[in-house]
């Protein structure tokens, strides 16, 4: 099955000489949720803006649903919904009217039932006759999503969808994304909140310095790069690791009060049993232990540092 979005060797260099995108290639499958992670200035928004036709690339190709986005812009853009970080909206417009108007911008016939359905899904129906200026910040963010869905896109871009909103709205947005995915909408989101990617994404891409440095299934990424730590709180401080424990990946705390053992949970043997036996033989006693699994945030930080 052909991907709904295929980007090949995409580059963008601005007039001042700054290269924001460097030979970016990416395929997105229909129906998936893809999280694009990267530090500030990495190229996330430039990549989205280029795919959506807001920025002209210097070179490369973009295929959306079988349409060349550079040669057949209208057909490609019809398939795309974009929820930007911020969008100026007419403050005196009514909520339902602005959603209906967004649909009309794509040359589609009015569909009051669809507008009603979208507003109800986003908990905006009760505000349908309210002026935009009367909405809270969270409601305005929901309205941006509603406007992006008005023309029934197959591919939805969410650029920092929960930046600056409270935790309740963030979780509500996660629910909305889940509902959209169930309806078959393909979603690409950029986020600074790693827990969003961990919660919602099927695959994760990391961009840094305008280059895609990794694309991986989320679960596989965490399996391959995630690490599990076993921390042993010692009964008595150690000044140095006994030579008999050199074979293990152990780190002794600076104050000598704890040992940290790093291991792979998917390995045939974790080595924990033999470690505990060798600790006892070396006369090292501990009073407590705990385990800690690395998160996607740990992995992301490590990737950016190494990149």
> What is the annotated CATH architecture of the largest domain?
3-Layer(aba) Sandwich
Any idea what the CATH superfamily of the largest domain is called?
A: P-loop containing nucleotide triphosphate hydrolases
Describe the global form.
Answer: elongated
Total domain units = 2
Order of strands, widest sheet: 6-7-8-3-9-10
CATH T-level topology of the largest domain? Rossmann fold
DSSP strand content: 25-35%
- Given as residue ranges, the uncertain stretches (5+ residues, pLDDT < 50) are none
Radius of gyration: 25 Å
Number of strands: 14
Task: Output mean pLDDT.
Answer: 87
Q: What composes the largest sheet?
A: 6 strands, mixed
In short:
This is ABC-2 type transport system ATP-binding protein. This protein is α/β, with parallel strands linked by helices and 307 residues long.
Explain this structure.
It is a single chain. By secondary structure, the chain is α/β, with parallel strands linked by helices. It folds into two domains: 5-223, 3-Layer(aba) Sandwich (Rossmann fold); 227-306, 2-Layer Sandwich (Alpha-Beta Plaits), CATH 3.30.70. It contains ten helices and 14 strands. The strands form three sheets. Strands 6-7-8-3-9-10 form a six-stranded mixed β-sheet, with helices on both faces. A four-stranded antiparallel β-sheet has the order 2-1-4-5. Helix 3 (95-104) packs parallel to helix 5. The relative contact order is 0.13.
